[in-house]
Structure formats: structure tokens, C-alpha cells
Predict the structure.
Amino acid sequence: MGQGAAGAEEGAMSVDVTLPDGWESRVRRALASVRDDFARGSLRPLGAGMESVALRLDPPDGDADRPFVLRFPRNEDGAEGIACEAALLPELAEHLPLPIPRFVFTAPNPLGPGEFCCYPAVPGESLSEEEWHRRGLLDEPAPIRRIAALIDAIHAFPATRARQLGVPEWDPRAEFSESLDLLRAEIVPALSPAESRTLLAAFETYLGDDACFDYEPTLIHADISLDHLLVTGTDVTGLIDFGDTTIGDPDYDLCYLWSETGPGFIRRLQELRGVPFSDRLERKLRFWELADVTEDVLHGIEHGLAEFRDQSLALLRDLLSERTPSRRPQTAP
């Protein structure tokens, strides 16, 4: 099983974990208010994302192969995400073919806003995109079938019930219109004229295409990436990180897989799901790949994360160079 459940959250988040002074005593006091035995367990950082930080908890005399995960929001978005998960996941779990986080409890967050959550680690190992490719997992029959089943099961959950549980709705046209205004002011000055034209054209074309917004609002995970699909052997055995879950365009659940696996895998995935791989779908996926990196640049600028901003800007320029006609490699058709 490799890292097994112990590594479930570790690969899905940055290994650069910055915790405030005195974090351990604060966490133990928070745990003691709920479960005294948990307060006496061992704690160690697992990783951090933009919106939360995760710790591994091994209760005293517990099962070393089945630790618990503690996730602490770092900001208001993270707090809203955990609150949404706490309401949705107990019901959603009953509809899915594989394990997902099942919260044991939530409690006031000693390290930031909102509440933190505690759940048994989901079985499996979180692997990087590179490791998925190295192990040939994208060519194995089981993972793609599991992914297809997971996506279909999430999308089948009634959107009306998701709304009742407090899941927010996503308006991509409004969000990306706002991003377009910001990138004109914040990103375009850092790009070449050709790169700027390519980026602006991509946003304007997407926003101006009514077909891109012709969908039935659906519950989506909104962050299905390879590192969130936990692996045991050559099969997918769990799915984590529902913090971005929303009601929106069901095609969006393919966007990160598109970037990580390529068109061939997405075509096979759609065939398994009995859903056509249309030109419209490809246009949306290509735009979302570019828009996601653009959003990262804007996030880095907004929050003063210079290194993250620069890394994201470099990746954005790489993507734009592939799309700019004057810089695209000339190959035979």
C-alpha cells in the first residue's frame, strides 16, 4: 500500500507548512474539549494548501495504519469550505462508490477562522502527477473506470438537496468577467503584446460564447486532480478535498484532469461515461486550463505571495507561448 492512509493528505498539499508559534499546545487544548484521548495523541504536519493546513493525528493506542487527519482553515474561504463539507459529505458519501472524508467532529479552530475538522484518513496514497505517469496508472483499466464512476455519482446527487445543505452556486460568466477586468490591470503589463493579445482573446471568446454557459447546474467536486484521487496498488480507492465543492458546470470536473492527463485520457473517460467529447467541451477545457493559472497569478498578487505569483506567471507565459501563432512550433499536420 506504499504510504497508505498515512500519506493520504500529504501528497495533496504543499510540504511547506508554516504553523504559528505555540500551535501544538493550542491544538491539543482544542482536541481536549472534544476528545481527551485525541489530545494525548501524536501530531505532525502533513501539508498546507492555500486555504487550509493539515495535521496527522495518531491517537494513543490507536491503529497506526489508520490515523486521523485534522484540517484547519487558514482564511475565511477555507472556513466556508469546511462548513460546507460538514453539511454535505455525510449524505454524499452514501451515494459514492468509494470512500471520502467522513468527519468525526468539527470544533472551533484554534489557529484561525471558523471550525477545524477531524476524520479518519481515507484509504490510499496521494501521488503526484509525475508518479501517476511513472507508474503507468493512466493506462491501467481500473483507475479510469473508478474516476468515471466517481464523477457520475457526484453529478447524480440532487442539486436541489445540495442547495438545501448550503452548497454555493458558481457563476462562471460572472467570475471570469471579474477576472478579465483584473488581469487587464494586473497581468497584461507583465506580458509581451503577443501574449497579452492571446490571453485577452481567450477570455473574451469564452465569455462571448453562450454555448459555454448552456448547462444544467450540477453538484461538482470542482477540484478533481490526480493527487486528490487516492491510490492503492493500481486502483483508485478514495477521493479527498471537497473544499471547493459547488453547484455549477459539470464539465468543470474534467478541467484539472485535462491538464494532467491530456486529451486522449479525457476522450476515453468520456467514452466510459457515455458522454461525447465535443468541440465545445474541448474549447472550455482549454480555456479553463489557461484561466486557472491566470487565477493563480491574481491570487499571488492579491495576497502578496511573490514567489507563488512569479511561478504562476512563468507557467502562464509557457501556456501562452503554445497558443501564440508567432511562437507556436511549426509541425506537419
